[in-house]
Amino acid sequence: MKLIRFAALAALVGMLAMLAPAPPASADGAASTRNILIGGAAAALILINHNRKVHERYAEDAQRQAALAQQRNDAWAAYTAEKSAYEHEVAVADSLRSEVAYQHDQVLGLRKQLAASASVPQRNYVASTIAKVQSPTGATQKVALASYGWGTF
Amino acid sequence: MFDKKPIARRLAAGAAALVGCALVACSAGAGGNKNTQLADGITRAVYNNDYAGVTQNFDSTLAGQVTRSEVGDLSDRMHKLGDYSGLTEATSNDSSHKYTYLAKFSKGALMVEMRLDSDGKVAAYRVVPQQFIQ
Hints:
The complex is a heterodimer of chains A (153) and B (134). In chain A, 73% of the residues lie in helices and 13% in strands. Chain A has helices at residues 2-19, 27-119; strands at residues 126-134, 140-150. In chain A, helix 1 runs antiparallel to helix 2. The longest helix of chain A has 93 residues, at 27-119. Chain B has a single domain, classed as Nuclear Transport Factor 2, Chain: A (Roll). Chain B is an alpha+beta fold and 134 residues long. Chains A and B meet through strand 1 and strand 2 of A and helix 5, strand 3 and strand 4 of B.
């Protein structure tokens, strides 16, 4: 802002200098001084405009970069989210695959147990047998007794 | 002359009749005796810890269940009752092929249960301590 004010003041001084009447005698020196001031003011304006353009361009670039960065960030965030979702889906699929494999193993094991129990005869060497016994009072009652042998009745 | 031939013929006919009656009686009870002999043979085999003798009249399913250690265990239990002297039939059910015997020992007795299959093979053979049996 200071630079702009200084440049505006320089331009104003230059314009006033152009409106001022030229002295007849030493006209050459004054004109030279005036021309120098005008040139300085013009140079300052050019410099100011240039700087403004540069900064505007920088700002636009920065805004563009910021927008691109935002887009990149958005894209990265979207990519990250998609990747995370995919990884979660993969984990879920792996878990389901493991569960299915476990259940498959369980089914195979149960089938083997069933086949084994069907082929191997039941062991009943010691079994209970219902028999009538006489109580101390003389009455008979049925009780379960241990029997030894093979087969069932 | 005294003719001895008619008397001899009568004696021979009587003897033949007696023999015939005996055969008929034996044939009527043959099934019971056969089953009793079968149970007695198995019980003696168990008593003597004879695995082959125990399983030789078992059907294939029952024979597959018998182990030598089980035969030895049951033999030990029988030997605790002393010497084996045989068994007598207690109950029989020909329709269900189930038979019960009382096996006697010098110091006690056991109840023997036996069930036969349709082929006459032993489908079940069990021993129950007799001291509780009525």
